[in-house]
Amino acid sequence: xxxIYAILLAPFQxxxxxxxxxxxxxxxxxxxxLVAIAEQGVDVSALRQLPESDLLEKVLRHDQVxxxxxxxRPLLPMRFGxxxxxxxxxxxxxxxxxxxxxxxxxxxxxxxxxxxxxTPPMPPRETISTASGKSYLLAKKQQYAQQKNWSDRIxxxxxxxxxxxxxxxxxxxxxxQIATISDTGVKCHLLLxxxxxxxxxxxxxxxxxxxxxxxxFWQWQIxxxxxxxxxx
Length: 232
Hints:
A hairpin with a 2-residue loop joins strand 7 and strand 8. This protein has 2 domains: 2-108; 112-222. 42% of the residues lie in helices and 22% in strands. It has helices at 44-47, 52-69, 87-96, 98-108, 134-171, 194-210, and strands at residues 2-9, 27-31, 34-40, 75-77, 83-84, 112-119, 176-182, 185-192, 219-222.
């Protein structure tokens, strides 16, 4: 069985030894203009039976292999747990899907995935006196109302940030996916060139500093470049 990690455009050669899930070096399997990076001897059915901690370790190793292959070079990362029963089955898949896979790799050329996180300000701290009886119950009720109002406000601001991201990405034709919207902020995956990354960072910094949404000072953080996990 061949466990597959990624597909790249030929020509490609491994410059370093990369160890996979079964502690074996990964290999290149070339089919015309495509190269599959795969490992022999991985028992996928056995992976599903692993304890959660061991399974998580394998998932992390899977991602590490893909990250090792990703050096300013377009690749299609495969989901964890995908394998082919034989080399011929893998080659057949590559040959039957050569145009679709090649087009996708060409589209990803010069781009990387970035994860953007927008974090709202911390809610104001509320303290309740040690008073008992009706005063205490009234204070608890007021605290609950204030917390709900704050949560509702941040959620509305999150939606405003999503609208701004949508307008920005639509204008500059940037593929993106909103991952989460909540009262703890916004997480978004974007597919960017290095130039778009710089421009977006500058735009976010300017927006946060000079035009805070509804008067709240949000913070933003963007990841290092990653393989296009969400855009394959």
